[in-house]
Amino acid sequence: MSTTIYHNPRCGTSRTVLEHLRQAGIEPTVIEYLKTPPTREALAAMIAQSGLTVREAVRAKEALYQELGLDAEGVSDDQLLDAMIANPILINRPFVITERGARLCRPADVLEEILPR
Question: Which of the following is catalytic: 11, 68, 75, 89?
Answer without folding.
Answer: 11
